[in-house]
Amino acid sequence: MLGLLMLLGSPLVAAQPEVYLVASVQLGGSNLAQSIFLHEPQITTLEECQEAVRVGQRDRDWQRYHHIFMRDRFQGFTGHLDYRCVFSTQRFSGWNDRARYNHPYLISIDAQSNLQVERMPSQAQCATRLKGLPPVRQAISRCAVGNQNLL
Predict the structure, then answer these.
(1) What are phi and psi of 17, to 5 degrees?
(2) Calpha distance 87→107 (Å, rounded)
């Protein structure tokens, strides 16, 4: 009984949000997208993340959030790149550019830049789930495949 009271009296420790960069490329004119979730422990604010994105895009040299999207794999197609700095309490395995993009995710980013990622069984099921969301949530969500595990 005392153990139960101690458990109830102790504060629950929730995961602290960390800053991530969600980098996505969408194949033009389609619903096919790939997303990666990059974390730099020394970047702790959205402003620092946004500055790292500006510098990376301007200099075409990503010293922070190092990544490469293989544009040559999209020959003959238009790919749209999108970078979003977000807060996340969810954690992801490290990104490896050689790993297969075979993890479908429903990705939502709200107006306060909070990230919510849900693993889906397939891209088709993600698209069906996305269509079934309320319009407000649908507007802030998308389906994409990743090559990182949701931990």
Answers:
(1) -65, 140
(2) 13
Q: How far apart are CA 115 and CA 67, in angstroms?
A: 20
> For the segment 90-109, what is each residue's pLDDT rounded down to a tens digit?
999 999 888 899 999 999 99
The amino acid present at 147, given as its one-letter code, is N
- Residues 67 and 25: beta-carbon distance below 8 Å: no
Enumerate residues 6+ apart whose C-beta is below 8 A from 101. Answer: 34, 145, 146, 147
The label of the residue with tokens 């389609």 reads: 30
Predicted confidence (pLDDT) per residue in 59-92, tens digit: 877 777 877 655 545 556 677 889 999 999 999 9
DSSP conformation letters of 24-77: EEEETTSS-EEEEEE--TT--SHHHHHHHHHHHHHHT--SSS-----GGGGTTS
